[in-house]
Amino acid sequence: MNPFALTGFSFLGFYVLLGLAVMWGLRMWIRQLESASAPPAQNMTDPYLIAHLRAGENEALRVATVALLDRGLLVAQGQTLKTKNTKSFGVVQRPIEKAILQHFTSPGEGHEIFKDSGARIACSGYEKVLKEQRMIADAGTYAKRFLPVAIALGVLIAVTWTKINIAFSAGRHNVGFLVMLTIVFAIIALVIWFRRHTARGEAMLADLRSLFSRLKGRAKSLRAGGQTNEAALLAAVFGLSALPAASFPFMEQLYPAKSRDGSGCGASSTDSSSCSSGSSCSGGCGGGGCGG
């Protein structure tokens, strides 16, 4: 049957199925592109690198701050943080930890670290590693995604244009819902295009969640004190909300939203991480008359 002979809700139903199929194909095409010729695997043992991969620069700084508090190198009084003493600097080795301790030699609120130039420079090293390992997108990644996105949008726009011309030639002008659906799928395609994570990065995060699932299962047994890096790893992989509030009470005052929501959304270098799911082609696909 010629799909352009369909009218009203019948054609809208066809268009929704077509749009979903095109979005799925777009995701698979991009995933295949980004999975090919992958560089050697990165040894993901640094919790701050993992946190940066999952949710960006600010999340790495949050996890590092909590880890320093857990180890007693930072002291919290409500929302105010302060480096315990000058001896703290001799205990840490990672640049991100040194930058945080340096910033809080003078008392300040936790969120101030996000604007600290030294901390941002320390985090830039993580971003460089992740881009080199093709786990987060760079300019080259976005350029490679252009062709699949352009073809996907071209297919949907061509179908929409053809149907609108048929409807107008038949004297029907109720094409509003069809145009709205086209815009919705175009937005989804753009979200897929500008996703921060690559297919390789998504696979790494899935592997990490599987690897540390047992640690998450016994999270309530974790105790503060910094004797191990389990708390930092748990927060890095699953978000700050995975840490038990009873053992880490300072989190609720420092990062109340993060301690309740471990998704890490909004935690990129501009605090707006790509938490959107590029594969989410559902929602907003309603129906109505479209030229017939």
Task: Write a short abstract of this structure.
The chain has 292 residues and is mostly helical. It is 57% helix and 3% strand. The radius of gyration is 24 Å and the shape is elongated.
Secondary-structure map:
Elements: H1 8-35, H2 47-55, H3 57-70, E1 74-77, E2 80-83, H4 88-91, H5 95-103, E3 108-109, H6 117-132, H7 139-169, H8 176-193, H9 199-211, H10 213-217, H11 230-238, H12 250-254, H13 256-260
Antiparallel strand pairs: 1-2, 2-3
Helix pairs in contact: 1-7, 1-8, 2-3, 2-6, 2-11, 3-5, 3-11, 5-6, 7-8
**Structural class, please?**
mainly alpha
Helix proportion? 55-70%
Order of secondary-structure elements: HHHEEHHEHHHHHHHH
Poorly predicted runs of 5 or more residues: 262-292
Number of distinct helices: 13
How large a portion of the residues is in β-strands, by DSSP E? Answer: under 5%
Domain module tally: 2
Write out key terms for the chains shown.
mainly alpha; three-stranded antiparallel beta sheet; 2 domains; 3 strands; elongated; 292 residues; disordered C terminus
Descriptive report:
The protein has 292 residues and is mainly alpha-helical. It has 2 domains: 3-37 and 138-193; 47-136 and 198-260, no CATH class. Helix content is 57%, strand content 3%. A 3-stranded antiparallel sheet has the order 1-2-3. The radius of gyration is 24 Å and the shape is elongated. The model is unreliable at 262-292 (pLDDT under 50).
